[in-house]
């Protein structure tokens, strides 16, 4: 579920075209589907972070923290380079093998909980789930495996405008060069259409277009071969078009209600209506490219933090509000139930659809069982981010 923002060097032959086009492109953000739509005003900030007592963290005493040290140690691989986190990460190395009570005491002593709130001060948001899917595939196309996964195309440009327009530093324009024109990159309908503009750039082929679509949403997955071998594929880039949920099309067509929407129901509908699958998938112009991982195909993939995810303990967040790598405590319910689910997790990933201060995506793990839970999860959420206690300077 990673959200890559890779940069490329802009070659001298492009500089003049880019400088001339930059102003026009910026003014046309709302008109071009390849560019992120810049709002008329900046998005409202979240409510100020206010520290709370541990007794105010709903469900804090209900979670079994036995798996937490391993997940936090992974966060510290990245966080330990930052002064704010160095001491607490150093002391966390002593947690391995500690009792559940000792782990809880460690977090209570070394961290302060801050409840995240919406801009209107509402503490309730939403949590969804994601997982690493398994797809049947092949290294060669055939009647059984006709649907390609594509590598990141060489002609995909990612143009960073921050050098010319510092105020637009968070925007990156994705497109392609045609002559001396920078054009929007191909959308889903064009890539999967009869012209096949990315022919020759295939990585692997799979047997099901809907499962491939869900792989695009999850960002990584395992491809299973008929000889019993398997490989992991990970996110390598995106075409720059905005993500649009296929749920909206299904609702507008009267096919499903919002309450009926789930990955399982979408799969079932697609099996019964194969002629309409293309229309459904093309409502989302976003397209993801993949690379084959050199790591263990049975191990969890890395998230946006760059460390392997831990099933049930890693969560994707909006990094504008929650520091990547930080511990976060979730108070929610199990998928499609009212049964409480309280969990201390690590913010080790991001996602294109994970936007807002009280928004999270729960990593369930790998395979079909994890997919069953992830596909049904759309629950109310309260969320706390844990930040290291500020130690007074010596001599204060």
Characterise the protein shown here.
By secondary structure, the protein is of the alpha+beta class. Helices cover 24% and strands 26% of the residues. The chain has ten helices and 17 strands. The protein has helices at 12-27, 68-79, 83-92, 100-110, 188-191, 209-218, 246-252, 263-272, 277-281, 368-376, and strands at 50-51, 111-115, 125-132, 134-138, 147-150, 157-160, 172-178, 181-184, 202-206, 220-224, 230-238, 288-292, 314-317, 327-333, 340-349, 359-366, 378-388. The strands form three sheets. The chain has a six-stranded mixed beta barrel. It has a six-stranded mixed β-sheet with strand order 5-9-4-10-11-12, covered by helices on one side. Strand 7 and strand 8 (181-184) form a beta hairpin. Helix 2 (68-79) runs antiparallel to helix 3. The longest helix has 16 residues, at 12-27. The radius of gyration is 22 Å and the shape is globular. The chain starts with 11 loop residues before the first helix and ends in an 8-residue tail after the last strand. Mean pLDDT is 86; it is low at 3-41.
Into which percentage range does the β-strand content fall?
A: 25-35%
- What topology, given as strand order, has the largest sheet? 3-16-13-15-14-17
Which bin fits the share of residues in helices? 10-25%
Low-confidence stretches: 3-41
The run of helices and strands is: HEHHHEEEEEEEHEHEEHHHEEEEEHE
Largest sheet: 6 strands, mixed, barrel
Could you say which structural class the secondary elements and strand pairing correspond to? alpha+beta
The count of strands amounts to: 17
The CA-CA distance between the termini, in Å, is 44 Å
The general outline is globular
In DSSP terms (H or I, runs of 4 or more residues), the helix count works out at 10
Average pLDDT, rounded to a whole number, is: 86
Computed over alpha carbons, the radius of gyration is 22 Å
């Amino acid at each position: 579920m990673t959200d890559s923002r890779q940069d490329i060097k802009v070659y001298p032959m492009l500089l003049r075209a880019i400088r001339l086009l930059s102003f026009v492109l910026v003014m046309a953000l709302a008109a071009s589907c390849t560019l992120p739509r810049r709002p008329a005003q900046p998005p409202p900030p979240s409510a100020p972070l206010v520290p709370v007592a541990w007794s105010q963290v709903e469900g804090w005493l209900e979670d079994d923290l036995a798996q937490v040290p391993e997940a936090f140690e992974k966060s510290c691989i990245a966080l330990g380079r930052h002064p704010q986190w160095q001491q607490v990460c150093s002391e966390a190395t002593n947690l391995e093998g500690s009792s559940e009570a000792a782990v809880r005491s460690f977090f209570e002593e070394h961290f302060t909980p801050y409840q995240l709130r919406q801009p209107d001060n509402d503490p309730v948001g939403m949590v969804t789930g994601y997982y690493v899917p398994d797809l049947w595939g092949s290294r060669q196309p055939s009647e059984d495996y006709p649907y390609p996964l594509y590598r990141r195309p060489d002609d995909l440009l990612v143009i960073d405008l921050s050098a010319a327009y510092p105020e637009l530093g968070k925007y990156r324009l994705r497109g392609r060069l045609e002559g001396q024109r920078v054009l929007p990159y191909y959308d889903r309908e064009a890539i999967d259409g009869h012209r096949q503009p990315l022919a020759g750039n295939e990585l692997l082929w799979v047997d099901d277009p809907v499962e491939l679509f869900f792989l695009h949403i999850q960002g990584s997955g395992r491809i299973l071969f008929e000889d019993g071998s398997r490989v992991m594929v990970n996110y390598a880039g995106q075409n720059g078009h905005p993500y649009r949920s296929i749920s909206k099309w299904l609702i507008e067509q009267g096919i499903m209600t919002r309450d009926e929407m789930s990955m399982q129901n979408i799969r079932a509908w697609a099996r019964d209506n194969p002629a309409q699958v293309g229309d459904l998938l093309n409502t989302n112009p976003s397209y993801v490219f993949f690379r084959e991982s050199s790591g263990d195909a049975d191990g969890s993939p890395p998230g946006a933090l760059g460390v392997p995810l831990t099933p049930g303990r890693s969560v994707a967040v909006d990094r504008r509000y929650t520091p990547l790598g930080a511990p976060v405590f979730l108070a929610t319910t199990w998928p499609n139930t009212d049964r409480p689910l309280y969990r201390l997790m690590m913010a080790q990933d991001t996602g294109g659809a994970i936007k807002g201060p009280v928004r999270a995506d729960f990593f369930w793990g790998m395979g079909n069982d994890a997919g069953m839970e992830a596909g049904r999860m759309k629950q109310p959420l309260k969320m706390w981010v844990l930040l290291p206690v500020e130690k007074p300077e010596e001599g204060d």
